[in-house]
Every structure is written in structure tokens, then in C-alpha cells.
Amino acid sequence: MAASPTPGGGGIGAILAAGDRDYLVRNSGEQVKISGIEADTVALYFSASWCPPCRRFTPKLIEAYKELTSLGKSFEVVFVSGDQDEEAFNAYFAKMPWLAVPFSDSEGRKNLDERFEVNGIPHLVFLDAKTGEVLTDEGVEFVSEYGIEAYPFTTERINELKEQEKAAKDNQTIHSVLGTANRAYVISNTGKKVPIVDLEGKYVGICFVVNGYPPVEEFTSVLAKIYAKLKEVGEKFEVVAVSLDSDEESFNTSFSSMPWLAIPQGDKMCQKLVSYFELSDLPTLVLIGPDGKTLSSNIAGIIDEHGLDAWEGFPFSAEKLEILAEKAKAKAASQTLESLLVTGDLDFVIGKDGAKVPVAELVGKTVLLYFSAKWCGPCRAFLPTLVDVYNKIKEKNSDFEIVFISSDKDQSSFDDFFSGMPWLAIPLEDERKADLKKRFKIRGIPSLVAIGPDGKTVNTDAKTSLAVHGADAFPFTDERIEELEKKIDEMAKGWPEKLKHELHEHELVLVRRRRPYGCDGCEEMGNSWSYNCAECDFDLHTKCALGEEKKGEEVKGQEDAAAPAGYVCEGDVCRKA
């Protein structure tokens, strides 16, 4: 933002003094007169020890502060704490080399929060110490992106840096992307320094990584196979990892299993590249061409969609991608159950006690692939419904089976959850699971994919079909679902479109429900139709609203809409963080 007068006017003294207090404090307890601050630029740092983003940003600010002061820059920082107690304040402030508003002055801290409209932390406001003008209230972003290069943190300086960044992109080389004035190399996972000049004339993938993040780990495991294949066929391709880890131990843990190169952990270029390539999602793989120019800001989606086959689309030009798409269509058209479930010697699924069941025994059957996990609350709630439907279908159709594909983290959880399932499973530590998740783009669980007797995919959202129609949804084809939908439409003929009911103050409207819902009258689950108040999110079964059972209306005690358990769960689905 442009420099603007500080709310209330006055210099830094008028801003920081409060009542009889005319001083700030150091973490040693020393009092420092506000009038004695000689810095030209003063930053107010709104932060708290309980805030994870603050704890991540504070080391960056400390580093910038120490560098600026060592260079003799006229700069100071004042910590304005958002901690709840003095013990937490003292422990957090002990790590900071700058000044702070005394924790005891809660009124003064509150006034600063209000004065600078602090709606979230960390928040860093740079001020002209003499005039009190706000130079920028985007200090966190500027320090994160530019470090000390942003000094003195004026709008003019930031615009200058952005112009330099634009010029750098226009004249981009592999050296300007990966190197610095003091470093002209990247490293291997053995610590060997590899000159950046060795990458000239190659396609280079810039891969942003972070240890312990499942989507990145799954992506890099596939990328490693593609990397090996491209090396095998002689393509000039290299990958350079850009670590977002905050500590060297985490970096080393993830990098040790990667066959490619990396920018050294903690190098400032890592954070600069986040801004330079406008990183907004993980995984991200930027593709740089042999001339050093950016060919694509992210080809991770291509690899995610095609898996190992993506190597055939290298270097991912429009023509190559068209060929890749055609091959994918042909592959889908020739899909069989064996092509889905058999990989090398892995030609079986397992029953109870780990007994191996050949995939060949499932050929010719309708098979549901059940993606689920014990840690997922909605999965646990949905399981009784699925077991009930499974048993009902099996009573009439022997040519039906379910295969459990687990996202559990350990064997104990897998065994415990699988023990309540009357069907088959793919073993927990089985490489086929990742391929199936990628093939069917599984973004949340529980999820059901229906494979027909000919091995072709007939329904990628069989969970919804099953939840609404129960066992009648078998064999889950479009034709069967359309047939059931027509019956449901016929069911409502003769029912009033609107009505008033004693359980709710507003008029209720008859609506078609595509997913199960909870009745606010009898508190049971229902589907197909409800009388609904959109304003209040209120629903009644038709039997509750009309005061009688309606022929064909299904009311089920399904639990898949139960309150989720687990931090990654929302509604009736658990998604990856």
C-alpha cells in the first residue's frame, strides 16, 4: 500500500507511548525510552506464540533484522504481543532481539491492534519513525518474498523489486532461476555439488517439496519412476527439488529418497521461487526448457492424470499431450478387471486372515472398489450401510463383490477396520493402491467406483447411487440409475408442492434430494424427497410432513451424514489436507 499518515497522527513516540508509559522493554527486562529510538524505519510486529504461522515467520524476521542491523541500517522492530499470559509472552519474546510493548500494558496493546486494524497475525506494519506514516502494512509478505532487499520497505522500493523481477523473467536463464551471486551449484542427496552449468540445454523440472505431506510424497514417488524412464531412454531431463521444510532434518528425510538434485535447504532462493512462480498448490512441478525459459508453470496435473504413462508425453508439448490423451482413451476402452487389479506378481486380493484370492476369480462380476479408512469418521459411519447393502445384493446376485482399498496408516488400523467387512481387500502396503487412486481421481473418502462384468467402469460415484437407492442400485449402471430416478419422480405425483407444518414457522417446499438427509422431525435419515425450508436448512420426510407413510418412500437409518471425526473430514466425506 502507499505511504499514508498513521491513524491519529504524530511520530513514533505518539504511537507507542501510552498514559504514563514512555518506554519499551527488551527481553532482558531493560526499559528503553521511546524518545531514544534513533531508527528511521520502525516495524510493529503483531504476533503470538500460540500462532503457528507466527512461529514460522518469526525466524525469517529475526534473520532479516540481524542482517539489516549488521549492515548499519537505521531499523527497529517493536513486538506487540497477542499472547494470553505473561509466561507465554516471556518465552516467545526471549527469542527476539528487538523491543516490545510491555505485556502488562494490555490497554496499550489493544489500542495498537485497533489503530492498525489488525484482523489476523502475523501482521507487520512498517512506519516512518519521524512522521509516523505507514510505509506498508504488507510487511509479512514483503519480508517473506524479498528479505532485506525490500529495505526500507517503501512502496517505491517494492515496485522497484517487482520491476526487477519482471525483467528477470523476461531474461530468464537456468542460472537466474536456480543460482545466486554466491552459489552456482545445486546438490545431490549425497551432498555432491553439481554446477548449474551442467543443466544448460536440458529440460529441468522445478519440484516444490515438503516432508510428510502425503500428496507430495505420492507425487514424487510417481515422478521418480518417470524420471528413471526418461533417463533410460536418453532424454535430457533433470529435476531440482525446492524444499519448503523449515529444518534440515525434515529436508534430509525427504531428499534422501529422491534420485534428483536440490537447492540447498534454507537457501533464500527457495522462498524467492515460491513468489517467482506464484506457488499456490502442492504438488507443483514447473518445467523449464533447454533455453532456460519457463514452458509450464505446473505439469503436476498431467502426471497426476496419466501416472507413469505420462513419460510418453515428454516434453509435454501440445502435440505430445494430444497423443497422450488418445492413448489414455484407448487404454480406458480396453480396460479389464485384470488391467486394473493385476500388476506383475500382484495378481490377487485378500480375504480374511490374509488368504489370497486370485483376481481371475472376480472376472465377470460387478465389482465395487471401496476407498476408505478407519481414521475417517464418515467412512466408519457409512460402513454399516454398505455391509447391509452388500448382503442384500449377494442374496440375489452371486456375481457381485467389493474390494476394500485402504488409506489407513498402519496394519493394526487396517486389520481392525477390515475385520468388520464381509468382502475382499488389497493389502495395506500394496503399490496398486496408489495407481487406483490416481486412475479414478479419488479426492475424498469414502468413495465407491463400480466396475462392470466386462471390466469397464460403469459408475465413479456409486456411493451416491447406493446411498439413495440402496441395493436396488445394482448393477450401478446409468441405465439402472435412470430407471430408478424415473420411479422416484413418479412417486411424488399428487403430493402438494408447498405446505405449512406445525414443526416449522415457514412454508415448506417439496424438493428432490440427490443425497441422504436428516429429517428434523423424526431425526432419521431419508432420501429422494423432502419438504424443505431453504432459509433455515430445515427438512421433513414426506411421511412426517404429510402425516402418513407414502408408498415407495424410503426412510433409512443411514449414518453416513454423522458428524465427522478427524481434522480432514467435512460433512460425509474425508478429504486430504
TrEMBL record:
Pfam families: C1_2, Thioredoxin_8. Residues 1-163, 326-493 form the Thioredoxin domain. CDD domains: TryX_like_TryX_NRX. It catalyses: [protein]-dithiol + NAD(+) = [protein]-disulfide + NADH + H(+); [protein]-dithiol + NADP(+) = [protein]-disulfide + NADPH + H(+). Its EC number is 1.8.1.8. The keyword NAD applies. One of its GO terms (molecular function) is thioredoxin-disulfide reductase (NADPH) activity. It comes from the Eukaryota. It is an enzyme of class 1 (oxidoreductase). Keywords: NAD, Oxidoreductase, Repeat. PROSITE patterns: THIOREDOXIN_1, THIOREDOXIN_2. Belongs to the nucleoredoxin family. This is protein-disulfide reductase.
